[in-house]
Design goal:
This protein is α+β, with helices and mostly antiparallel strands and 267 residues long. The protein has two domains: 4-102 and 143-253, no CATH class; 111-142, no CATH class. Helices cover 27% and strands 21% of the residues. It has helices spanning 4-10, 60-74, 145-157, 204-217, 223-228, 234-250, and strands spanning 12-18, 27-32, 39-45, 82-85, 93-97, 111-115, 123-130, 136-142, 167-169, 175-177. The strands form three sheets. Strands 1-2-3-5-4 form a five-stranded antiparallel beta sheet. A three-stranded antiparallel beta sheet has the order 6-8-7, with no helix packed on it. The protein starts with a helix and ends in a 17-residue tail after the last helix. This is PI3K/PI4K catalytic domain-containing protein. InterPro entries: CHP03843 (IPR022292), PI3/4_kinase_cat_dom (IPR000403). Residues 149-212 form the PI3K/PI4K catalytic domain. It holds the Pfam family PI3_PI4_kinase.
């Protein structure tokens, strides 16, 4: 059987349905090569991207692919296989492997709102708020190595929209991040629900990975840089290098900005 990326890139795509609550056109599909088994995937055609005031039109699919390439280069595998297709059923766009979720939801989500007087001891508390019933609640997220990796990745790719709903946990406990269309801007756009490690030291093994990534990105002949250059502008590439270099130099997670540090809504 062909590998996942080959199926996504070369397989015939059949549209099964649409994710109706997504802000951009998000289609549930199956990709298949010949008589091979179908692979469930998500297809986001560029023509279905909603215009944004601060991101150039028609660039979200490329940012999704670039984010995947960065995650893969780090060796973290946090983003499902993602490719750019020029020949999708509705034109050029991004195609990504579908992640199956457990049929039964867990008791506490990886990112959750809990009553202010019942915050578990094994979570990171992010902010206090008042819900629609005028009850005080706290936004929290889980504490685990995989989620911490994702928080570091978000800093690297300058993720402007890390919501709780963009973090998927499989029945086997694997954690993935999705929806990376508004990442990799030249300006500081980091907005995330994963602020629990703000100001803390980054583990040495993760820093070594970031340092290696920085070296690859600064080599004009490196295949990774060449691939990213097909999806990002030269200024966006240089901003990416600078963010990586700052993380390596400081070894510390950034603090939330004063203006809108969390995407809204947070889920």
């Amino acid at each position: 059987m062909a590998d996942v990326e080959t199926i996504l890139r070369e397989g015939d795509i059949e549209i099964l349905g649409r994710v109706v609550h997504a802000s951009n056109a998000t289609l549930v599909c199956e990709a298949r090569i010949g008589d091979g088994d179908p692979l469930r995937c998500v297809y986001k055609p560029i023509r279905g991207e909603a215009p944004l005031w601060d991101f150039p039109d028609g660039t979200l699919a490329d940012r999704e692919v670039a984010s995947y390439e960065i995650s893969r280069a780090l060796g973290w595998g946090l983003i499902p296989e993602t490719v750019r297709r020029a020949d999708g059923p509705l034109g050029p766009g991004m195609v990504q492997r579908w992640i199956d979720l457990p049929e039964q939801e867990s008791e506490v989500d990886v990112v959750d709102l809990v009553p202010a007087d019942a915050v578990p001891g094994d979570v990171k508390a992010i902010l206090r708020a008042v819900d629609a019933a005028d009850r005080e609640v706290v936004l929290v997220h889980a504490i685990n190595d995989r989620l911490r990796q994702l928080a570091v990745l978000d800093v690297i790719i300058n993720n402007a929209d890390r919501k709780g709903g963009h973090i998927l946990v499989t029945a086997d406990g694997e954690t993935f991040g999705i929806d990376h269309g508004i990442c990799l801007h030249t300006d500081d756009k980091l907005r995330t629900v994963l602020w629990g490690w703000a100001g803390e030291s980054i583990p040495a093994d993760l820093l070594r990975d970031v340092e290696r990534l920085t070296q690859e990105l600064t080599d004009p002949t490196d295949p990774l840089r060449e691939r990213l250059a097909t999806h990002l502008t030269a200024d966006e590439l240089e901003a990416l290098v600078l963010r990586c270099a700052i993380l390596v130099e400081t070894g510390t997670m950034p603090e939330p900005p004063l203006h809108r540090p969390i995407p809204w809504p947070p889920f």
